[in-house]
Automatic annotation (TrEMBL):
Gene3D superfamilies in UniProt: P-loop containing nucleotide triphosphate hydrolases
Ranges of residues in domain CobQ/CobB/MinD/ParA nucleotide binding: 10-182
Name the record gives this protein: CobQ/CobB/MinD/ParA nucleotide binding domain-containing protein
InterPro entries registered for this protein in UniProt: CobQ/CobB/MinD/ParA_Nub-bd_dom, P-loop_NTPase
Organism: Enterocloster aldenensis
Length: 221
């Protein structure tokens, strides 16, 4: 099936912005259709996809227009037009928590078709994402706000603890998250891991991986 839209959801600090950027880059490298990364995050004042727009645009990923309005509490211009255009691919970086996810919910009617994939990013190292109860609470709230169709959500695991991250930490938190999600009748679609650690993680576990280029450090170079 030809996928038109990819929506990244998750709590703030889950790493969904890095993952959204990397998915957009992968699509731009292998796809003839124009790729748009649409930053729907109006709730976070720190690390956002729009902060490294110049890096992405150099690699053929399109960003929303009207940069002077990016930090205003407004929906990016042209979202409905892009959703109706079958000649492009859209990657959405939704805001963290239920309030941020509501920005996606208003487009549920245009996203509801089978050409949309919904991914929920979990960083089990993050505060309030380490137990079954915490995961269920945030997951339920975000799914309702974003109006995700039942049975359409897939999980991306992204264990990361900044400078304390090791291959062993990634593998350990992945396995624990896998067990926790089983209690919610969910499974992990893939493991997101920085290219810095990917080869070492592969020696410890054989799971589908999304290898990431990191961007947050490039903002300050």
């Amino acid at each position: 099936m030809d996928i038109h839209n990819i929506v990244l959801l998750g709590e703030a600090g889950s790493g969904k912005t890095e993952i959204a950027a990397n998915i957009a880059l992968l699509l731009a490298e292998k796809d003839e259709k124009p790729v748009y990364l649409i930053d729907m995050d109006q709730t976070k004042c720190l690390f956002r996809a729009r902060d490294f727009s110049s890096l992405l645009e150099k690699r053929q990923v399109n960003m929303a227009e009207n940069q002077e309005l990016w930090d205003s509490p407004l929906v990016p211009m042209g979202v409905s037009t892009l959703l109706k255009d079958e000649g492009v691919r859209c990657v959405f970086d939704a805001g963290g928590n239920a309030a941020g996810a509501a920005m996606m919910g208003q487009f549920a009617g245009l996203l509801a078709g089978k050409t949309t994939r919904y991914y929920y990013v979990i960083n089990p190292c993050r505060a309030f994402s380490g137990t079954v109860g915490e995961i269920r609470e945030s997951l339920d709230a975000i799914m309702v706000s974003a109006r995700v169709p039942a049975g359409r959500l897939e999980v991306i695991a992204n264990p990361y603890m900044g400078g304390y991250t090791t291959a062993e930490l990634i593998a350990g938190y992945y396995r624990r998250l896998e067990q926790d999600l089983a209690k919610l009748d969910l499974s992990i679609k893939c493991l997101a891991v920085s290219k810095t650690f990917s080869s070492r993680v592969r020696k410890q576990m054989n799971v589908p991986m999304l290898e990431l280029d990191t961007f947050v450090d490039k903002l300050y170079v």
